[in-house]
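dumping this here before i forget
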Amino acid sequence: MVLGVFVTLAVSAGLGFYNASVILQAATTELDASVSSVSGATALFFATSGIVSFLAAPLMDRIDVRWFYLAGGVSGALALLGLRWVNSIPLLYVFFAFFGSGFALAGLVPGTAVVARWFSVRRSVALSIATTGLSVGGIAITPFASRLIDDRTLSGAGPWMAAAWLIGVIPIALLLVRTSPLPLGLAPDGREAAAPGSASLAGATFLQARQTRFFIFLAATYALIFTAQVGALAQLFNVATERVDKTTATAVLSTMALSSVIGRLIGGVVVTRISALSLTRVLILTQATSLVLIAFATTRTSLLGASALLGLSVGNLLMLQPLLLAEAFGVVEYSRIYSYSQLFGTAGVAAGPFILGLIRDLANYEVAFIVGAGANLIGLVTLALAGSVTVARAAWADPSPA
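structure:
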């Protein structure tokens, strides 16, 4: 199960999340377009992904999740195939809208929902391994896609990327992924049910969850930290190039990605020994510190060190969001709960690169990254306001009014 989610996330991230900026850069050159005229395309990609995930989530809690992987595999492949006919800026926006839909249906929401349902005792470890597929996709798949686009242009690379998407999503999901252990007569963690039909999954309904203080302030926290995180990642290559050179910039991105993989795997084990909420606080502070260090880093060594620290927070914070929601609200309507929280996070993902880029143009990168660090510190405050997982669980487990 974890392997299936790992592979599908690697493909969707390698050809989607990380590859979106590569496609956008190539389109800027091939369409002879200004950066400002196409800058909204990736924001549309993430916004569409968030909205489609939220709209599809109620069904993910009720019908076989493999239907969504099938839909995401087909729609994502058709969108990539459609790059053959993207010859104008409006068509580029249409492409990213459709591609965002495919990315949503074969991405984080169905993947984390499946893992959350199948694991309870070792959920953090399972989620850390599965979501590492995101970083592996960026490291192993995106460079090949970038080279393919350089060699064949978007029109020529589109069919090849479409085939890779189709093969990497649909067969893997159909063979390895199952919505829940219950239809197989199993309980979470692969345990046998005590008696036929006795296994059940506990949890809050979506309406119960969204009314809690924990849900509201956790969503606000992730909107803030994703604004800073993704904004910093989008500007990291540019700041390293500006201050040192392109070779250093490439090394900085590779260091950050590798640190993200290692950090997530370590974090999945660490969170079995300390509370997920405590680890989240530490990592938000770690991310804020890394952004301050990047703000004032002017040498290759200092940039590499700061990017490694940033990588430790990037991978783990993404893994901890679904883990916190599963701990607080269970898995009965997990897909809907997570997708709604992710919708707020997606707003930060879409806005982050624009906000930090605008601050850089108005001032400089020092100010931009300091503002990013400040957003993380505000996130620490909103996380404190969320309260504890125990209180959040009591809000739906207790029949009395929350």
